[in-house]
Amino acid sequence: MPIDPAVAIGAELPGRDLSWTSTDVLLYHLALGAGASEMSYVYERDLRVLPTFAVVAATLRDTEPPPLDMPGVDVSLASALHGREELVIHQPLPVTGEAKSRSRIADVYDKGSAAIVVTETSTPYYTNRTSIFLRGEGAFGGDRGPKTAVAVPERTPDAEVLCRTWPEQPLWYRLLGDRNPLHADPDFAALAGFPRPIMHGLCTYGMVCKAVVDAMLDGDPSTVTGYGARFAGVVFPGETLRVRAWHADGGFAVTATVADRDDAPALSDALLTVSG
């Protein structure tokens, strides 16, 4: 069977020795769209590290497409989409650092028409949980999983930011280690059911975090303690994101839509938490 929960759940995945420098952090910020007027993101003096850098820390040196040969999971990469990302920050990431990571398959959920495989990676700096949505691999009688809805206040947002993407952005972002051809190869994108390559979900995820940090935290990412979001729709390179944020218990409720397509959803059920 393509997915065997009895084998998959709890299975250990290869750990890694991680290391990064200011060059990696600068490249990450540039790939998210940071510009020349944002010196704390693009210049090593007084450089601040966005917490979402954690999601690329483990892939910085990768040069091959991400494998899906996990224990108990035997599916095609073309069936996989990023479903949700949840990041918990234990301590702010330094500009230059090293860490050992441990990874495992935390759970497998059955959504009927699809399956979700949740992987968890932990380091002293952060823990992140990645939900991989596998189309056509559900209906095996498993648990549907917990609800992750985040309530959005029925009022005008406390901040609204437009974030432009550009056509070449996925080609920059893939240099951070996510070489999935879905984001570069038109033929592979067509095989996966898309008219052209799409933005990396984690690039959108990082752009939205940056927009909220800039609009609500005066550009200071050091107070962020967590950030989770569901990938609710695709974004095509060159489109513009509309990011809205509301004050909520412990942080900010956030949505991101595609302004060019009548505010089609991009990220939903998003919550960015802060200390204090």
TrEMBL record:
InterPro entries: HotDog_dom_sf (IPR029069), MaoC-like_dom (IPR002539), MFE-2_N (IPR054357). Residues 20-133 form the Peroxisomal multifunctional enzyme type 2-like N-terminal domain. SUPFAM superfamilies: Thioesterase/thiol ester dehydrase-isomerase. It comes from the Bacteria. Pfam families: MaoC_dehydratas (PF01575), MFE-2_hydrat-2_N (PF22622). Residues 152-249 form the MaoC-like domain. Gene3D superfamilies: Hotdog Thioesterase (3.10.129.10). Belongs to the enoyl-CoA hydratase/isomerase family. PANTHER family: ENOYL-COA HYDRATASE CHSH3, PEROXISOMAL MULTIFUNCTIONAL ENZYME TYPE 2-RELATED. This is 3-alpha,7-alpha, 12-alpha-trihydroxy-5-beta-choles t-24-enoyl-CoA hydratase. The lineage of its organism: Bacteria, Bacillati, Actinomycetota, Actinomycetes, Micromonosporales.
